[in-house]
Amino acid sequence: MNIFQEMSLSVYSFKSYKEFLNNRKSKVFLFAIVVMLIYFVLTIIVPFVRLGSGLGAMIREDVPDFELSNGVLWVDEIVQIDDGSNCIWVDTNPDEVFYDASEMESYYAGYINVILMDSEKIIIKNSSSAMQQYRFDELGINFSKDDLEALVPSMYFIIVVVMIITYVVMTMLFFFGVLFVALIGMIVASSMKYQLTFGQLYLLGIYSRVLPLLIKACVSWLPFTIPYFWIINFGISVVILGVVIKGMKTDLLQQQMNQGNQGNHYSFDDRTWM
Questions:
Q1: pTM of this prediction exceeds 0.85
Q2: pLDDT class for 54, splitting at 50, 70, 90?
Q3: Domain spans of the chain?
């Protein structure tokens, strides 16, 4: 049985999980890598391709013309965004200069993120730091919209590197999440008085994450977020694991009954998931 067949069976055929216990560690590891690659493509790559393919056009059309030269910033239009928690205000009219950061902080005390820019300086505040100020004449750089457009090819390279790192981190978090599912599985198996090793539960946990990840990928495309969805997501895996364990116990009892209660024990192929 190949990886994609197992991926399909892990979603709708919980009886197949018993067969998965006979898989080698290398195959299970490859299975997890492929699952996370598919999830990564659906949630990160596809949205980026839709947005990133027009990155240059977006800069040309949506970013106002600007130039930073000799410590003075010029932007050809005023930008003002304020939703009550976040504020961006750009006004480079020489006659409209913001007060220093120390004086502006009280005005924006209730905001989480603030960016204020005039012709002389930029003032920044975020959730983890107090309001800070940087004067353009201290930066010693010249930069314009044309320079920004010229950086687009380099941006793509940086984005690719960031995506690779993101995939690695997401995969590590996946394996860590399966650890949590396996620990809950131990409690479930114990309550059902059915013996499985932690290695077997961890393997089953990997397969139980396929359906929740597919659902999570679909949810990521919705125009709204579902509160505490991560609890629902892991809850689905725990339910699947419980159903699988219950099915295994039922099969074992049925096998014992068919064998006339001779005390035979059901055993899995012991290729190291013990």
A1: no
A2: low
A3: 3-52+153-258, 71-141
